[in-house]
């Protein structure tokens, strides 16, 4: 009886991968950056991240009227990513309102996970930048104090390397790579972000075309149009790659599965577009950093990119116009 | 639905069931442009209402004399006349409001609600009904602007009765840091979108339509 043949329609082979498993992988991938944030910015960074993640999960559970607050884990990912694009020690209400906007305006009003047009964490950041810019623009960034976990980091403030040429020249490329510079709590350490992204790449969750196009264009435009202020064209290009949010944006936000193109060619276009807009804002715009708005703008044109890059079917004949 | 007189229907239709902003999505330009403060929003609503009532009345009176081929230019001339009057009245008696509304006052001429009611209603209906329609639609427009402006002013500035510092009441105390997004144009779109969602939800719940 047990050996009866099962007759069913396809699919016959199922992946063990689920939304939850992917989200847990992303959380693992964000762990090095989170750890680095705590090492650099102390306990206040940890508090910011905890407030953000817990609020995100609570808001999502309340909105969906679910008891399981972790659920598929996407709210926790949004919460952690949102904390990573905040200053290390913002007021608690800014974190709460921002992450609630991310979940509600960024995700749930469009129909929840899988239906959102814009990256939720970046919607949250756009909301707080436009509402309380005083905490995120100018000489308000905490200077990192490595390994001083209990230090009050809000005492010493400075501008980010992108905020002024003087600040930029004061940091070495090594410090930029390790993350020992002022900035958003999760964006500073390129090293930690690369470690996390390597895990995501190993698990097959990200495609290198988007970060490749994004980072490549930032490097090239930084080298050509950056004016070589950082001791030469190539080092200026490298500076633009390592400073600010390019690494976090390119590796973790522009690779979001929901809000980016699905076609291979489309992914490359998406990455290149993000890079161009970022560098246009940085070099010729009024804001010091443009990663947030670059990715949000490219999110908006994702359906068009997908439409124009539908691959030809194998063996198919090109449609005559 | 119980049978109500057509007059009553004409008056109430515009307020909720066929609200020009929330249902018909007409007149979006002033709706988004001047609703950063309640005073401005309501001022805009009342100015447009006055023009709407007057133009509905006159167009209805003249409906048998306007040749159908040139009706739109005729409507525009009539509407523009009343807009000019309103503009001068505002300038004379409410200079602060006039400054705040800026270009949106002359733009009432091309307001879709007014032109729409002229074309769809007043040019085909008797005078009394057109008048009631104008009043109802005007109330609906003003109400919508009031709601949107209230959301935006309370969240975006933390006040009511602003922007004049003498009359402004800070709802949450002076240390409140308002969500400036809602005071900006981007916030107008977000607030309108969320309000539309809420209106649709309420309509579904109470089975209107």
Task: Write a compact overview of the structure shown.
The complex is a heterodimer of chains A (321) and B (209). Chain A is mainly alpha-helical.
Number of helices of chain A: 13
The strand count of chain A comes to: 2
Helix amount of chain B, in percent? 55-70%
Strand tally of chain B is 2
Order of strands in the sheet with most strands of chain B: 1-2
Rg of chain B, Å, rounded: 18 Å
Please state the CA-atom Rg of chain A, rounded to the nearest Å. Answer: 21 Å
What's the CATH C level of chain A? Answer: Mainly Alpha
Average pLDDT, all residues of chain B: 89
CA-to-CA gap between the ends of chain B? 11 Å
Biggest sheet statistics of chain B: 2 strands, antiparallel
Large-scale geometry of chain B: globular
| Classification by helices and strands of chain A | mainly alpha
Distance N to C terminus of chain A: 59 Å
Category from helices, strands and their pairing of chain B: mainly alpha
- Assembly of the depicted chains: heterodimer
Short key terms for the protein model shown above:
heterodimer; A: 321 residues; mainly alpha; Ammonium transporter fold; two-stranded antiparallel ribbon; 56% helix; B: 209 residues; two-stranded antiparallel sheet; 8 helices; globular
């Amino acid at each position: 009886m047990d050996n009866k043949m099962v007759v069913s329609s396809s699919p016959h082979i199922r992946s063990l991968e689920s939304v939850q498993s992917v989200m847990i992988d992303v959380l693992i991938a964000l762990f090095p950056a989170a750890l680095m944030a705590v090492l650099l910015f102390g306990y206040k960074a940890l508090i910011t991240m905890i407030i953000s993640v817990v609020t995100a999960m609570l808001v999502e559970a309340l909105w969906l009227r679910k008891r399981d607050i972790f659920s598929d884990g996407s709210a926790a990912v949004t919460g952690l990513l949102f904390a990573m694009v905040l200053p290390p020690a913002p007021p608690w209400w800014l974190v709460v309102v921002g992450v609630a906007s991310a979940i509600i305006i960024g995700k749930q009003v469009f129909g929840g996970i899988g239906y959102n047009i814009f990256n939720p964490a970046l919607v949250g950041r756009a909301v707080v930048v436009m509402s309380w810019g005083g905490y995120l623009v100018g000489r308000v960034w905490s200077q990192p104090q490595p390994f001083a976990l209990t230090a009050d980091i809000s005492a010493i403030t400075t501008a980010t390397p992108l905020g002024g040429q003087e600040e930029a020249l004061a940091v070495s490329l090594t410090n930029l790579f390790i993350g020992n510079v002022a900035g958003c709590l999760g964006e500073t350490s390129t090293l930690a972000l690369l470690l996390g992204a390597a895990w995501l790449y190993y698990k097959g969750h990200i495609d290198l075309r988007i970060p490749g196009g994004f980072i490549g264009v930032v490097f090239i435009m930084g080298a050509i149009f950056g004016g070589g202020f950082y001791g030469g064209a190539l080092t200026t290009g490298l500076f633009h790659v390592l400073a600010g949010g390019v690494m976090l944006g390119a590796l973790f936000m522009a690779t979001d599965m929901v809000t980016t193109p699905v076609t291979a060619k489309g992914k490359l276009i998406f990455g290149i577009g993000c890079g161009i807009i970022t560098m246009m804002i940085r070099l010729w715009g009024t804001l010091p950093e443009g990663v947030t708005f670059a990715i949000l703008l490219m999110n908006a044109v994702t359906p068009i990119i997908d439409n124009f890059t539908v691959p030809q079917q194998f063996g198919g004949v090109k449609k005559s116009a | 639905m119980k049978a109500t007189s057509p007059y009553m229907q004409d008056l109430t239709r515009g307020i909720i069931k066929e609200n020009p902003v929330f249902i018909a999505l007409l007149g979006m330009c002033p709706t988004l442009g001047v609703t950063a403060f309640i005073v401005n929003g309501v001022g805009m609503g009342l100015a447009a209402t006055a023009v709407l009532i007057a133009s509905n009345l006159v167009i209805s009176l003249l409906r048998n004399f306007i040749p159908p081929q040139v009706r739109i230019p005729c409507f525009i001339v009539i509407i523009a006349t009343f807009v000019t009057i309103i503009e001068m009245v505002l300038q004379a008696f409410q200079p602060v409001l006039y400054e705040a509304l800026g270009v949106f006052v002359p733009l009432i001429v091309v307001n879709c609600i007014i032109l729409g009611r002229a074309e769809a209603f007043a040019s085909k209906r008797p005078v009394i009904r057109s008048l009631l329609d104008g009043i109802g639609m005007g109330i609906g427009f003003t109400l919508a602007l009031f709601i949107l402006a209230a959301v935006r002013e309370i969240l975006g500035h933390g006040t009511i009765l602003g922007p004049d510092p003498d009359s402004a009441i800070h709802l949450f105390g002076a240390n409140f840091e308002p969500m400036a997004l809602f005071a900006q144009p981007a916030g107008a779109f977000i607030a309108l979108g969320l309000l539309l969602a809420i209106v649709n939800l309420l309509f579904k719940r109470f089975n209107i339509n």
